[in-house]
Amino acid sequence: MKIIDPVKTAAEKYSSPAEPISAQVPILRTRTDKLHLAHQALLPIEMGSRPEIEREYNTSKLDLGRAEKAAKVLDLFPKARLLDPEPLSWRHGNGLPVLAPFSPQSTDCIFDHEGCQSIRKLDESVYRDVAHKLTSPWTKTRCFVYAFICWLACLTAEAVLFPRFPWANVRLDQIAWISSIVFWVTTLAVIGASLQLHSLVRHRIATARFTGLIPPKSKEIIRRAEQSPLFREVFLLVEVEEWDIRKEPKKKSLAQQVWSFILEDPLIVGFDGESLWLLDSFDLTTTEALVYGSTSTPTPTPA
């Protein structure tokens, strides 16, 4: 099912306000303190209730940590919203992402058989299916299996045809010696052939390029997010309609390789190691607007 305007859909339907979570800090702190005191005050006769109190305390402590983190994020970015990770799982018919994560430090988003090369700190499971799509089916094991089958066929042919040769009326010890040579030569040839076959195998690489200009206000948000210890990763989430898919990087400049351009309006997303945060959404500006100071109308973050 094709998603119409995936960037807008992700921002409006898959983000939620973080204020209700941050507002729970005082309540959760009080609850956590009470559970901690209750745990410390247990009498020996009450030890049967200790596991339940410890479980409640640990849960409350985790919830308090999330709420405090949300409060810190909102202090730094008042318009930030929690973003559901589902938009990252949207795929085109060829299995490549609809929304690509771009690092602010690179113009290109690159996927290969190991996953996303641009954003390394996201959970690998998010793009595991993409990596599988780009992985060549000719793995080292498969290459060896095919070579092994050829090896068995060669030995079988040698065993069947050798006695029929005109010069096969030699002594048995000579036949064994020649067969041994054939066996080891064939074995080494099979190993070499399997390694050579695997060296010729090339995985695929999917690349897209960001070609827009980011407004100054959004650049400042990116800089603050990258400098903040709250986020492990900061990236732009952009719609890619078509990817440049190649067997391997050519020996050319990257500008000549990449022809899949980005012209859609992106989202600025921060990843804190557990949750995704929608920090801002904006319209890409033009060179004229950047030079003459005429900024495009920003896309409002959903309230």
Main sheet makeup: 6 strands, antiparallel
- How far is the first residue's CA from the last residue's CA? 27 Å
The average pLDDT is 78
Report the order of strands and helices: HEHHHEEEEHHHEHEEHEEEH
Broad structural category: alpha+beta
Shape: flat
* Strand-residue proportion: 15-25%
Order of the strands making up the biggest sheet: 1-2-11-10-7-3
The number of helical segments is 10
DSSP strand count: 11
Helix content: 40-55%
Stretches where pLDDT is under 50 for at least 5 consecutive residues are 164-168, 250-259, 294-303
Radius of gyration: 30 Å
Furnish the topology, listing elements before pairings.
Elements: H1 6-13, E1 15-17, H2 19-22, H3 25-40, H4 50-76, E2 81-83, E3 99-102, E4 108-112, E5 115-116, H5 128-134, H6 140-161, H7 172-200, E6 205-210, H8 216-227, E7 233-239, E8 244-246, H9 254-257, E9 261-262, E10 267-271, E11 276-281, H10 287-292
Parallel strand pairs: 6-9
Antiparallel strand pairs: 1-2, 2-11, 3-7, 4-5, 4-6, 6-8, 7-10, 10-11
